[in-house]
Each structure stands twice: as C-alpha cells, then as structure tokens.
Amino acid sequence: MRPPVPVPTLSRRAKLVIGAIAVLLVLFTVVGTLTNVYVDYLWFDETGFTEVFWTELQTRAMLFAVAGVATGGLTALSMYVAYRFRPAFRPMSLEQQNLERYRQSLEPRRGLVLTAIAVVLGLFAGFTAQANWETWLSFRNSTDFGRVDPQFGVDVSFFVFDYPFYRLLLGFGFAIAILALIGALLTHYVFGGLRLQTPGQKLTAAARVQLSVLVGVFVALKSVAYWLDRYGLVYSNRGDVFTGASYTDVNALLVSKTILVWIAGVCAIAFFANIVVRNFLLPAMALVLLLVTSLVIGVAYPAIVQQFVVKPSANEREAPFIERAIESTREAYDLTDIDYVQYAQQSTGDRVDTASALAELRGDTETIANARLLDPNVLAATFTARQQIRNVYGFPEKLDIDRYEVDGELRDYVVAVRELDSAGLSDNQASWINRHTVYTHGNGFVAAPANQVVQVEAGQEGGEPNFTTRDLPTIGDIEVEQARIYYGELIQDGGQDVYSVVGAPEGAEPREFDRPEDGSDEGQINNTYDGEGGVSIGSFFRQLTFAIYYRERNFLLSSAVNDASKVLYVRDPRERVEKAAPFLEVDGDPYPAVVDGRVIWMLDGYTTSDAYPYAEQTQLGEVAADALTGTGTTALPNETVNYIRNSVKATVDAYDGTVTLYAWEEDDPVLKTFMKAFPGTVQPRSEMSEELVSHVRYPEDLFKVQRDILTRYHVDDPQDFYNSSDRWQIPDDPTQGGQADAQPPYYILAERPGEEGASFQLTSALNAFNRQNLSAFISASSDPDTYGQLQVLRLPGNTPFRGPQQVQQSFNTNDEVAQDLNLFRGADSQPVFGNLLTLPIGTDGLLYVQPLYVEGTGANSFPLLRKVLVNYGDRVGYADTLGEALDQVFGDGAGQSATDGEPAGDGDTEPTPSPTTPPPPPPGGGTTPTPGLDAAVAEMNAVLGRLADAQRAGDFAAQGQALADLQRAVEAYQQAQAAAGGGG
User: Fold this and answer.
1) Domain boundaries defined on the chain
2) Which of 418, 573, 918, 948 makes an SS bond possible with 652, Cβ 3.0 to 4.6 Å?
C-alpha cells in the first residue's frame, strides 16, 4: 500500500495575508451592500413607499433563508448521515487503497468541508429563490378571477397565482432530492459504503436504506409532477395555431398523465419498501415500468392520436378547443367588448364617387378640422431651434401629443417640457459643482396646436409650429404656475441617473441656474430649491453615505453641501414608478401634462401574467416595438406574457418628484392581489381629479399588444381561425425607407363613425395578411366618458382599399411630388415625410393625410412644413396647405369648409385637376412657349444658392427666407411647366 500523500500546509505569514485580504473583501462587500440598501431605503422613505421596500426586502430575505437552509441543510444532512453510517471496516482492494488518501485528507476537515458545501449550495439556492418573491406574494395574496376553467372546473386564479408557486416548490424539491442523492452517493463511495470495483457486496445496509429513501422521494416528487402536468395542459402548444389543451391533450395525454401519477406513486412505495425487503429487484422493476409506461402512454400514444386521429380532420377535431382559445385570449388581453363596424361596404375601393365623397367631407366638421400636421416624431429639432433658449436645456427626441380645452374648444397639442439636458453641458459647465449643484433643473412648458403652422404672411418664417405656450417665463394659452422641471427624461448621463445637490441655508445666495434674465442673452436668474423632493444630507453620516455610494469625495469637502442640502436622484419618471411599484410594467412613453398649474408626468402601469389558461403567449418587448422604439420611446422588457391590463395610472410631479399610483382598473384580480401585498400603495381611482382624468391617454404599448392579438383573434368561427382565411397584419411604417418596422399607432382628435363630436383616440391601420391592401382600422378612445372603448372598422375583403405603403408609393411616384422631392433632396436640404395618418370620413371613406417637411443638412438645421399630401381613393392632393390639397381631390371650397369645421354649400363644384391627372390642353392645341420655365429654373437655382450660403453661415432667419423663396419659385416652375406642357 502506498503511503498517504501529505497535505500541503500554509505558513503563518501566508495565513495572515490571506486572512487579511479575505476580511477586507468581506468588509468592502458588506459596506457596499449596506450602503446600497440604505440609500434605497432613504429614497423609499422620501417618496412614501416604505411599505414596498420592507415587504420586498422581508420577502426576499425569507425566501433566501428558507431555500438556502432547506437546500444546503438537507444536502449536508444527507452527507452527514452517509458519513455517520460509514462501514467501520472496508475490504482491502486497489479501489479502497486509492480512496484512503482522500479519506485521510477529508477526515480532519470534514466539518469545514460539510459546512462549506452547505453554505455554497445554500447561497445558490437562496439567490435563486429570492428572485421569485413576486410568485410567493401572488400565491399568498391570490384573488379569484370569478371565471372557471372549462376543463378542470377551478377558478382561473389557480393557474395565475397558485400553479406557478407549486411548480417553483416542486423544482426546489427535485433540486434538493438530486443534490442529497449525489452527496450521499459521493460520501458512501469515498468512505466505503458504495464499492463499485471491490468484489463482494457493493452496498452496505445503511447505504441501501439511505439511497432507497432518496430515490423514493425523487420518484414521489415525480408523481406530484405528473399530477401538476395535468393542469399544465392549458398551456400546451400542440394545437399549432392556438394555445391551450388540444384534442390530443384532453383525450390522450390527460388520461396518460393520470395513469402515470399512480404508477409513479407505486414505484415510490416500492423504493420505500426496499428498506425492509432488502432487494433492489422490486424497485428496479417498478422503475422500468414507469419508464416504459411514460414512453408508451405519455409519448407514443398521444403522438399516434395526433397523427392518425387529429391531423386528417384537425379543423373539426380542434374546433371546440379553438373556441376556448379565442375566448380566453380575448379575455386575457381585454378584447371582449369591441365595437365592430362594417365600414365602407358600398365603396368601390379606388374608384371614388366624388359626389358622395364630397358629401361625406362636407358633413364632417371635426375630423378634417383637427387633422394633425405637426409630427411629434419629427419636430424635436424645430422645438430645440425655436425654444431651447440655452444650451443646458433640451427636448426629447420624440415629443408628445396631449389635448387641452382652450376657450371652450378641445384641441390636440404637440407638447414638451424644456428639460435640463445633461448631455448638452459644455466642458466648463461639466465640473462637479456646475453639473450637480448649479445646473439642476429645466424650466418651461412648450405647446403648439397639432393642426396649425405659422404662415409666411404672418411676419414669421413659414411652416414652423405655432407655439401658443412658450418662452421663459412661460406664457401662453395653457397656464403654468410651477414650470421648473427637476424630474425628467433627459437628466441622464450614458443612461445613468444624474443626481443634483440642492438647497441652501436661509439667507444664502441662490446657486442654481433657473433661467436667463428677461430679454437678456447674458444675465441669469438663480434660485434655491424649496420643494418636498429629495433626501436630506445635512448630517455627516448621510454625507459619508452618499460619498461612498457615488464614490465622490465632494460630498464631504465641497461647501455646496451643507446642513440644508438634499440629494435628488432616480429622476427619470419611468424609473421612479418602476421602483415604487416593482410589480408593474411601465409604458415606454411618459408624457407631460399641466394639471392645476403644475407640470405632471403621466405614465401607464400594466399588470401582467404568463399563466392565464388557454391564452396565446406573446413576447411583450417584441410585440410592443415599432419604428419609433428606441428613438425617444423606451422598449419594454422582452418578457413572455399572456395577460395584460392597464390597471394603474401613475403620475410624477416634475418639481418635487411625488409619485402617485391610481387604481385605474380596480376590478383587475392581479392588481387586487398586489394591493393586498402592498396595502396603501395604490390610491383608489376616485382620488383622481377631473382635470387629471381629462389628460389620461389610452397607452401605446398596450394598444400595440392588442392590435397584434387582434390580427388573429378577431375571427369568431373556429374553422376560419384554423385556416387563417381572414388574418390581418400590422403594416410596416412607410416613412422608414423600406425598413420592416411596424407602423406606430397615432393619437388623433377625430370623430368616430357612429359617434357625435371629436374625441381623442389612438389609432392604427391594419392590412390584409401578406398583402398591402387595407383590411381594418382600429381606434381606442381616450375620452373620459368612453375611455377604453375599442372600435374596429372592417373593410370589405374583396375591395382593394389602399394600405399605408401603397398610399406612400402613390405619393412618391406622383410626377409633381417626385419633382419637388428631387429639388428638396440636395446637398443642403432633404425632404422628411411626417406621419401618414388614416382618417375615417363619415361612413364610407378613408382619407390619408401626410405632412412633408424640408430640413437642411447642417448641424443646426431643423424641419419646416412645406407641403401637405392627401389621398382619397385614387385621387392625390398635393399643395401648400391641407385645404388646398383637399380642393384638388374634392373640388373648390371643400378644403376651406373641412378645415374650418363648418358645413359648406351645395357642393356643385367640380374637383380641380389632381396632380395625378394632367391639366387640360389650352384651346386650339399647340404648345406653350418656354421662357417662363427658363426663368423659373433660374430663380430656383439662385434661391438654392442663397439657401446654401445661409446654412453654411448658420443664419436661421436667412434660411427661413430662402426656403420661403424656394417654395414660391417651385410654384412658379410648376405653373410654367403646366402651361408649357399643355398642348402635348
């Protein structure tokens, strides 16, 4: 026998060094963790959401402890039992001789080794378990849905709240059983209880008993798993085109799972009986029976039924299960109460009946008058050029749409707040003092009516928004009393929150830059923050805490930090709501609203689940993405969900950061469950003021999820659903130059068919599947009286109504439009198409409206509205204004009457020649001389030269004048061209 290998030992000095390093690592880790937790607590205490902090912390700690102790403790116990009942004498063999040196190494340290294994396994299990704190709270506080599952006769809450927790529990049970079994096997092998290569008995009695018990526990858990698998059939994807239990699942697999429950139970009893019987033959036979049965009746039999019974007549066999899926999916995505309107059934598609169309247009006094010409996704640069005022301010990449009642008239506005733009600070402004104590906030609210632009004759540069609320201090038709913006979307640096240190002792000189002096480009007015927001850091301990947290010594050294100081952090409105309500998914597009004179950020919170029975699952982030995601709109996490509700409306005060959550859908069982877990966190809907409710919008991300589901689940008949004979498709955004990104939904103020008066709504066009023709138009009301009502206009399937891409193509290929695009697309300018809006007119037609902007290519350029395009049926209108474009399509006077919102006369006028139709030849035929063309071309060349010079010089006024001159030159060219080509 070889002598045992000596165990290497460390010197006393090495032990001290290693010990000191270990202590420092632990100290830094503990201090860092405690600092993070304490700073988090201070934030929750400041915002009034300590209930969320403590409940989440306690739940995580409880799950961590239970899972850690259970996993590490039971595994260590199994190994200890195996060691405790090790054989006193072991047969001499080469195998045992080789193991002896391991035994000698482990024996002196067996307690340490066992403890280390228990701790490591416990930590892994604890960290895994604590991440499932919402699953535990949902189970603990579950609320009935009041809807019974059609297969098992249990309330839906069992699947949404209970089933996920049982699965989690079972998963930990399997993990503990496997780890305990592995630990026992290794221990028995090392200490001689299990002898694989030694002649004679392979297992000692103690090893046989322990291993039989552990395998029996594992098989018993498998029996429980088979029982839960029965309920898991409601999430089956065997039906291919639908989710939920299919014919095969119910008629073959459900029976098989029930049988396997009993066979696994018998197998587990056989292993337990081996404690007494002392023969592995019986449990081995039972285990083989379980394996064979699971393959035959659990796999082969359902496959045979699916292949030879279901597939030959799947549309008939699956019909009742498809009905379940349709009903459950609609319920899960809140699509049960939709107003379907058979729209434009008498229309002839592209062949426009001008008389009836004109009658519809003249009868419309709301939709066209409010047609939006300002695209909030394009005009951020224009807002910046006209309303930035100082470089420290900025506007988001995507502006917002909201509505206000001004002078008794409801209007939609493009709105934005003038935020502090941390990325816009110059080098000398980016010092710690300036960045965190001087430039602390934005200032001002800016709004422009969405259907108006400034005309050239008004003495200003034409084509830009008409800012009716603007400047500093803020003036205009929307009264703003507190315009300072301490919490916003732009107060970030590389995606990280930028904190500010505010406040000063009484009588101290104000430090924070507030706004420029009135009428001054140089002077400034400072102020001192006096709001309720922020965490006080008046004590040395607090200053030290934040110095460690931000790794910034100025918290301890700077004179800007004093007894009256506060720290403002977590300043993005979306992040604040997510932190205050971690059980919510928050819509990616917060928007500002002026409520009671204060700027309030408004947000939508969703309760979601991935466990609603029979409902189709979807990837939230993927479905909610569109052509604008990432350009001013935050992408939702790509989580799997099959239930969603807009259960919470949240607000964040832009001045003091106050977060308020309101229960918008108070009957939502998921919301009720979390309100039990976090009592007092969500306020009742009745607490919302009337003015606040007037600014509530139907949320975009929910709408995008719903429209995606509706492309398939608008069908009632199971046969049609299975055959996908009436499937729809979300159109690609036609303004993105061929990129396959979904067209975003658009907020409009319009009159819905069958309703009187304009309402604020979110809308989207839907194409036929794999075709560019329009099939439906969906809108969701944001009006307080009809909020959430979904209306779907269903177009006749055999009529080729143009979809958005076809309309965009008709615009791009129009001769007059194409000529202008070539003129606008030069070295110094480029055309920018705005959003292509689809507007239902009356009961028989869809009008497309699209603004066309021209933007310079210089660094400080911005887009200005130059043209408006209109499409109705086969007619295209293209003019300087919406009214003129409508005249081209419907006839003289139609545009004025529609845009004024007043009914017009008898409508006997004929339409003016559309750009799609050549103008009539002059009397007598022949050709027209071309001097006018030459002069027009020369004028355009001269204007383009002046425009280039102005852009290079950065002269905005000259640019505006040049663009206005260019417009007049283009019109002169068009008139000359029409005259020259008249006799063609």
Assistant:
1) 226-317, 380-571, 919-984
2) 573
